[in-house]
Amino acid sequence: MPPAEVGVVTVSPGDVGLVTELPGRLEASRVAQVRARAAGILQKRLFREGSDIQAGQPLFQIDAAPYAATYESVQATLAKAQANLSQASALAERYKPLVEANAISKQEYANAVAAQKQAEADVAVGRAAVQTAKINLDYASVVAPIGGRIGRALVTEGALVGQGEATQLAVIQQVDPMYVNFTQSAGEVLALRRALEQGRLKRAAGTDGALVKIVLEDGSEYPGAGRLLFSDLTVDATSGQVTLRAEVPNANGVLLPGMYVRVRLEQAKAGNAVLLPQQ
To answer: Is the pTM of this model over 0.90?
Structure first.
């Protein structure tokens, strides 16, 4: 019989990454609740629901007529206070040489100076009132606090908002990048750190010593690589797990907040290891 043919695989030792697969949930990197800070009737919605918006973009318009009237009123009050200040200052200036020449009493001059200072205080109060009225007038135009993707409007035109509390109008979520929160056993974390300290394992090459890949619910691997941001300082008393967070790029918008994913985490490398086919 001829000799039997056998397959041969050439192997060589090298560094092999130790990958752990853990369950995780995606979360928007920034979330902002858009609320009405001015009370009034909502007149317009200025955005398309589900669209991407920029920070500072107008979103809603609240009836600004009462705030505009208040703003004009305090401006008029400030103008009156400035006129009184001019009159009081002129009187104090006229009295100054007269009191030096003993043409008027010192009490009259003191009264004129006090009236000037009172007028200056009235002007300062008026300017503060104008600034407050301008802030309230600007609140009638609700703008985006952050850039991101905005969801559906939580109120419609004609609704009374901001009466007694800051009514929530919409939610903005920044989905690029995304956060993925996952947990790892505290025992595994301690064993890994001990192996690294003893030199049995080497730290993985990557940001903060950990490389992160995301596996979607359909089993496909997300193309973008993530980076580990931090590991929690405490262990959950009920589950014995440590919470970790990674940041994943999401320029194409495939990842959505709340999605369940699997996280492949490479925290260390085994040195002088040999890889063989499983069969």
So the answer is: no
Helix 65-100 vs helix 106-139: crossing angle, to nearest 10: 160
* Burial (CB count <10 Å: 0-12, 13-18, 19+), residue 67: buried
Tell which residue, 251, 126, 75, 71, has the closest CA to residue 176: 251
Q: Give pLDDT < 50 ranges for the chain.
A: 206-207, 209
Q: Which helix (H) or strand (E) holds 273?
A: strand 260-273
**Residue 112 C-alpha from the chain's centroid:** 53
Q: β-pairing, 40-45 with 58-62?
A: antiparallel
Query: For residues 29 and 177, is the Cβ–Cβ distance under 8 A?
Result: yes
| pLDDT for res 207 | 42
Structure tokens at 231: 């590991």
> What is the number of other CB atoms lying within 10 angstroms of the CB of residue 242?
20
How far is it, in rounded angstroms, from Cα 154 to Cα 235? Answer: 38
For 94-104, write each residue's pLDDT tens digit: 988 888 888 88
Q: Which helix (H) or strand (E) holds 123?
A: helix 106-139
